[in-house]
C-alpha cells in the first residue's frame, strides 16, 4: 500500500512550485479575453493550468508536442531522466493545461530562464514550444498559455521575454504584448544533425 502511495506522489511531482501560478495578475497583460479567463479561472471547471508533472508522460504530453514538431520515440525512462535534469538545474518552467475529464494535456508552453551578466546580473525569459491540441483550438487556450508563461517570467524577475515565431503568428503575439524590435527582428539558427550511429 505504501509503495502505491509513493508511486502516486512520484507521478504527481511538479517540475516547479504550482503556487506561483496563483499569484499571476492577468490585469498586467494587454491580452483581451472574451470571456475573461486566467490561470485560476481557465474558463471551465474541467480545465486546470499547472506545471508539468512527471506523470504527464501518461497524459499525452509528448503526443501534444508532436503536433508542434518531431519528438522522436521517447521512453518513460528518458522522460523521467529529462524531467529530473530540468527540475534539478532549474530555469525550466513547462506549463500545461489539462482536461481533467479525460486526464489529457491539451496545451503547453515552456519558459526557459537564462541567467545573465548584463542588465545587472538579470534574468531573460524565452518562450518555447507553444502548442494547443488541434481539437481544443478556438477556446482562447493559446492566449491563456502564452499569457501565463509571460506573466510567470515577469513574476520571476525577468527583464525581457523573447520568442521566435513564424511570420503568420506575428499578429497573434503582438496582440499579447510582444513587439518586433526595429533593427533586431531576425531569428537565425544553426541546426546540428543527429549522428545516425
Automatic annotation (TrEMBL):
Pathway it belongs to?
A: Nucleotide-sugar biosynthesis; UDP-N-acetyl-alpha-D-glucosamine biosynthesis; N-acetyl-alpha-D-glucosamine 1-phosphate from alpha-D-glucosamine 6-phosphate (route I): step 1/2
Pfam families given in the database record: Acetyltransf_1
Q: What EC number(s) does the entry state?
A: 2.3.1.4
CDD domains from the UniProt entry: NAT_SF
Q: What class of enzyme is it?
A: transferase
Domain N-acetyltransferase: residue ranges: 47-197
**Keywords of the record:** Acyltransferase, Transferase
Question: What superkingdom heads the lineage?
Answer: Eukaryota
This one is known as Glucosamine 6-phosphate N-acetyltransferase
Query: Which organism does this record belong to?
Result: Parnassius mnemosyne (clouded apollo)
Amino acid at each position: 500500500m505504501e509503495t502505491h502511495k509513493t508511486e502516486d506522489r512520484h507521478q504527481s511531482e511538479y517540475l516547479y512550485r504550482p503556487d506561483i501560478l496563483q499569484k499571476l495578475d492577468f490585469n498586467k497583460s494587454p491580452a483581451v479575453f472574451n470571456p475573461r479567463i486566467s490561470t485560476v479561472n481557465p474558463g471551465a471547471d474541467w480545465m486546470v493550468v499547472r506545471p508539468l508533472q512527471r506523470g504527464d508522460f501518461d497524459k499525452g504530453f509528448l503526443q501534444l508536442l508532436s503536433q508542434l514538431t518531431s519528438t522522436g520515440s521517447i521512453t518513460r525512462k528518458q522522460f523521467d531522466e529529462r524531467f529530473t535534469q530540468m527540475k534539478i538545474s532549474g530555469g525550466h518552467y513547462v506549463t500545461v493545461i489539462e482536461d481533467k475529464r479525460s486526464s489529457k494535456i491539451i496545451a503547453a508552453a515552456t519558459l526557459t530562464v537564462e541567467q545573465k551578466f548584463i542588465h545587472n546580473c538579470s534574468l531573460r525569459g524565452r518562450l518555447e514550444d507553444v502548442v494547443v491540441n488541434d481539437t481544443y483550438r478556438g477556446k482562447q487556450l493559446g492566449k491563456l498559455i502564452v499569457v501565463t508563461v509571460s506573466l510567470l517570467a515577469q513574476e520571476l524577475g525577468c527583464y525581457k521575454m523573447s520568442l521566435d515565431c513564424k511570420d503568420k503568428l506575428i499578429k497573434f503575439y503582438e496582440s499579447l504584448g510582444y513587439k518586433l524590435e526595429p533593427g533586431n527582428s531576425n531569428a537565425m539558427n544553426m541546426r546540428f544533425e543527429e549522428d545516425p550511429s
